[in-house]
Amino acid sequence: MELRQLQYALQIAAEKNFSRAAEKLHIAQPSLSQQLAKLEKELGVLLFSRNTNSVELTHAGAAFMEKAHMILDMVGQLTKEMEDISELKKGKLIVGSLPITGSHILPRVLPLFHSRYPGIEIHLIEDTTQVLEHLTAAGQTDICLLTLPVLEENLAYDQLAEEEILLAVPPRHRLSPRDGQAACAGEVSIRELHDEPFIVLKRGQGFRQIALELCRQNGFEPRIVFESSNIETVQSLVAAGMGIAFVPRMIAMGHGTAFMPVYLRLTERPSRMLAVAYRKGRYISKASVAFMDVVREVMSDSLA
């Protein structure tokens, strides 16, 4: 049994199709079929039941895939430990990130990290909080940049930085310092927002839940008029007068177009905690630690 055969079998199980699996593995389909047949002959069991439309795991196949995944994960961890011996001169790091963090923090983190560790290859995965937690718990990312709370019980985390949450309102909104009574203080209480239309991120994104909880902690359920998967779209809708929104401070600081909302501080001074998550019990490579250090450095400078 060879490690590549384990990889082949896992890819077929993931794709449920020989052609797609062969394409992802960058090998010819006949070669993939031959390797699987060789593996099944050696094991003395069928791993897949095949028909004209699909490929499904057998009972033996399901048990095999569980162990194969564990074996390849252990091999990956061993490889990372050995790469550390070469003092970060080479290696690969898979980093998961929320879109907000990815678009506003990583453009400053990645060039700095690359300048210090040019031999470390970074693979970036951007997705929702739920997906990223699942991928990290399954060992498909080395580390993941998230906001607390982390709900996946198989993940551990280190806190990185605390970031204030601001309120974005349209330029001609009643609370805008240009027009309303809030002009003197330049801030507003969350309790004053109970009748306002809110624009929020779509389900599955961590900052959406933070926004909803801020309203609920202040005695009301937000009236949601628009949802978006992109924080920049949220801000554009606010600027267009379609509603108001909570935004992380880094978003307000990085927004430089003329068509933009007005940002107000909230008297409650709410915040979110940025964290780096990783699977419990998993070996944390030197490359991961170095990446976390660079993120902390950039966050410290950005939020100072």
Structure description:
By secondary structure, this protein is an alpha/beta fold. The protein has 11 helices and 12 strands. Strand 8 (197-201), helix 8 (206-217) and strand 9 form a beta-alpha-beta unit. The protein is elongated. The protein starts with a helix and ends with a helix.
Blueprint of the fold:
Elements: H1 3-15, H2 18-25, H3 29-43, E1 48-50, E2 55-57, H4 59-85, E3 91-97, H5 99-104, H6 106-116, E4 120-126, H7 129-137, E5 143-147, E6 155-169, E7 187-188, E8 197-201, H8 206-217, E9 223-228, H9 231-239, E10 245-248, H10 249-254, E11 262-266, E12 271-279, H11 286-302
Parallel strand pairs: 3-4, 3-5, 7-11, 8-9
Antiparallel strand pairs: 1-2, 5-12, 6-10, 6-11, 6-12
Helix pairs in contact: 1-2, 1-4, 6-11
Outline the low-pLDDT stretches: 179-185
Task: Kindly report the oligomeric state of this protein.
Answer: single chain
- Counting DSSP E segments of at least 2 residues, the number of strands comes to 12
Structural class: alpha/beta
The major sheet is characterized as: 8 strands, mixed
Strand fraction: 15-25%
N-to-C series of helices and strands:
HHHEEHEHHEHEEEEHEHEHEEH
How would you describe the shape?
Answer: elongated
